[in-house]
């Protein structure tokens, strides 16, 4: 399938330059920890997901993104273009390109602080034409008013809306009503639903499909008719988990845009996220489609006990 004839995914969201310091552990509040290596990597949830979508193959990927007139924009734009993402770039005078400060621990976990800069200048009017777009992929590192307007415009145009509700917050009903697929981690699920118990929170959200990522345990998807898909994580040794969730979102959206069913989309997304954990950097760690399919074929899955413990099976006779 040529790029011109491939389904199109439009990503609207953030790009940040990540400043990453490795340390023995993530500091506690008020604590100073002596770190080790330091590097910068292209990042930002929107840009990470756009790169993951493009590398997943079989789709044309475009991105609406805002950056400042500064040196930090150069590696971000270069990374997007190298991955094959077509950018709808808005250069903002007087606003800095977004940056993120990442502390990465020896066990691969991270703590992140973001200074969004130009990302927060995006507005409802900035969304480009949706002609030919199959799927609109959104996150919450852009103004909530703009994200809501984009989702409603896409819904009115018959475009599938995928929202990664991160960073977590309670969402207005008008945004949730325009979402076809909501992707959250366990903490984000509780924040969006306003319910601490994950099983109850998953059932409470009136979105056509909700996907919950659970790190090393895997992921679960629930369709509004009650059908569920339980996807254990692939067994890898993590090096850097930064961007793994974004890789999951981009790969999932690409698969859905290609017409994959939920089960196949979940498998590809979980495999892509697992491979991303084995490499440093949010975008530099995103795998190519051939690597993802090889891991899926190998079937090296972790035990699903932790996944089923968080989301027990529905009563007998209910859809699964």
From TrEMBL:
Residues of the Carbohydrate kinase PfkB domain: 9-288
One annotated GO biological process: D-ribose catabolic process
Residues binding K(+): 240, 242, 276, 279, 281
Described purpose of this protein according to its UniProt entry: Catalyzes the phosphorylation of ribose at O-5 in a reaction requiring ATP and magnesium. The resulting D-ribose-5-phosphate can then be used either for sythesis of nucleotides, histidine, and tryptophan, or as a component of the pentose phosphate pathway.
Family to which this protein belongs: Belongs to the carbohydrate kinase PfkB family. Ribokinase subfamily.
Cellular component aspect of the GO annotation: cytosol
InterPro entries given in the database record: PfkB_dom (IPR011611), Ribo/fructo_kinase (IPR002139), Ribokinase (IPR011877), Ribokinase-like (IPR029056)
TM regions (residue ranges): 201-221
Cofactor detail note: Requires a divalent cation, most likely magnesium in vivo, as an electrophilic catalyst to aid phosphoryl group transfer. It is the chelate of the metal and the nucleotide that is the actual substrate.
Reaction equations catalysed: D-ribose + ATP = D-ribose 5-phosphate + ADP + H(+)
UniProt name for this protein: Ribokinase
Record gene name: rbsK
Co-factor(s): Mg(2+)
One term of GO molecular function: metal ion binding
Pfam families: PfkB
Pathway(s) per entry: Carbohydrate metabolism; D-ribose degradation; D-ribose 5-phosphate from beta-D-ribopyranose: step 2/2
Residues binding substrate, per UniProt: 16-18, 44-48, 141, 246
Species, as recorded: Pseudoxanthomonas broegbernensis
Subunit record text: Homodimer.
Keyword set, alphabetical order: ATP-binding, Carbohydrate metabolism, Cytoplasm, Kinase, Magnesium, Membrane, Metal-binding, Nucleotide-binding, Potassium, Transferase, Transmembrane, Transmembrane helix
Regulation: Activated by a monovalent cation that binds near, but not in, the active site. The most likely occupant of the site in vivo is potassium. Ion binding induces a conformational change that may alter substrate affinity.
Binding site for ATP: 185, 213-218, 245-246
Subcellular location(s) of the protein: Cytoplasm
């Amino acid at each position: 399938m040529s790029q011109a004839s491939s389904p199109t995914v439009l990503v609207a969201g953030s790009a940040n330059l990540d400043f990453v310091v490795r340390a023995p552990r993530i500091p506690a509040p008020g604590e100073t920890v002596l770190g080790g290596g330091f590097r910068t990597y292209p990042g930002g949830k929107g840009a990470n997901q756009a790169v993951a979508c493009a590398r997943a193959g079989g789709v044309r990927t475009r991105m609406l993104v805002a950056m400042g007139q500064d040196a930090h924009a150069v590696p971000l734009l270069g990374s997007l273009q190298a991955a094959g993402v077509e950018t709808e770039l808005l250069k903002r005078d007087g606003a800095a390109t977004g940056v993120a400060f990442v502390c990465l621990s020896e066990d691969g976990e991270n703590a992140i602080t973001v200074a969004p800069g130009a990302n927060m200048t995006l507005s409802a009017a900035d969304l480009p034409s949706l002609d030919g777009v199959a799927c609109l992929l959104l996150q919450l590192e852009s103004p909530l008013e703009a994200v809501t307007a984009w989702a409603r415009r896409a819904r009115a145009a018959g475009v599938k809306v995928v929202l990664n509700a991160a960073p977590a917050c309670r969402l207005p009903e008008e945004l949730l009503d325009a979402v076809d697929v909501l992707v959250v981690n366990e903490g984000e699920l509780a924040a969006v639903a306003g319910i601490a118990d994950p099983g109850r929170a998953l059932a409470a959200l009136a979105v056509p499909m909700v996907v919950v990522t659970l790190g090393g345990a895997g992921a679960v998807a629930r369709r509004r008719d009650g059908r569920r898909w339980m996807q254990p994580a692939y067994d890898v040794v993590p090096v850097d988990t930064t961007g793994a969730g974004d890789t999951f979102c981009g790969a999932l959206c690409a698969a859905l845009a290609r017409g994959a069913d939920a089960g196949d989309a979940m498998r590809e997304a979980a495999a892509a996220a697992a491979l991303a954990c084995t490499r440093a950097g949010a975008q530099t760690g995103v795998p190519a489609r051939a690597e993802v399919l090889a891991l899926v074929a190998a079937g090296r899955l972790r035990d699903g006990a932790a996944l089923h413990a968080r989301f027990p099976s529905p009563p007998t006779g209910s859809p699964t």
